[in-house]
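Preliminary data (for renewal application), S-adenosylmethionine complex.
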Amino acid sequence: MSRSIGLNETLTEYVRAMNPQEHPALKHCREETAKREDARMQVSPEQGALMAFLARLTGAKIALEVGVYTGYSALAVAMAMKERHGEDARLYALDISPDLIAIAEGYWAEGDVADVIQPVIGDARRSLSELASEDLAEQVDFMFVDADKTGYGDYYAAALTLLRPGGIILFDNVLWSGSVADPAKTDADTEALRALAKRVRDDDRVEQVFTAVGDGLLIAMKKP
Ligand SMILES: C[S@@+](CC[C@H](N)C(=O)[O-])C[C@H]1O[C@@H](n2cnc3c(N)ncnc32)[C@H](O)[C@@H]1O
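Predicted structure:
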């Protein structure tokens, strides 16, 4: 069977070396975050590079991220958007933790994108419904979902309101370290990720691709 290969450390280093050079602010964020016990929550630099590329490809000007942590993915996307749109770019950065947002803000300032990132602190379900009822409905070009897995279904429903036709949404961790394909795993997170993958696949309002990038990255586009 032809399939994606697993990456050992050497190959991971090769992939990183063949990607564009990481901006110093991204590198600083990654190296400092690596000292934390929960560092595995951070996206990989190659995933950050892919996300920045997709933001450029789609010409994204308004983006929304659910799950900021120490700010790496938001920083990568915001820098790509600001490059193209200057101060008109806007990234809404949603996280439940004010402490994490405060850490992220330091790196965003280093990357000169603090002025285009708007932190939104609180439970993302509530924040998304507030943003949708304000003026963001059908305005968002790019969304990244990387928070509590049991919320993914609700985040998808909100995304269909928030995304403009042709806008894209990325869901992280859809492989959940392989658990989704193990019938013995029936915990709430795994079940939520399985349900989301089927729901997006079978939804004719979107085009989608389920990729094995990182821990699995599901990308969907709201049909124009
Ligand atoms: C996997 S980390 C995000 C990693 C980040 N995208 C990066 O590039 O490093 C998940 C984040 O989601 C946040 N989170 C968890 N549940 C949440 C919720 N219900 N609403 C908002 N944020 C939440 C956590 O505080 C944590 O910072």
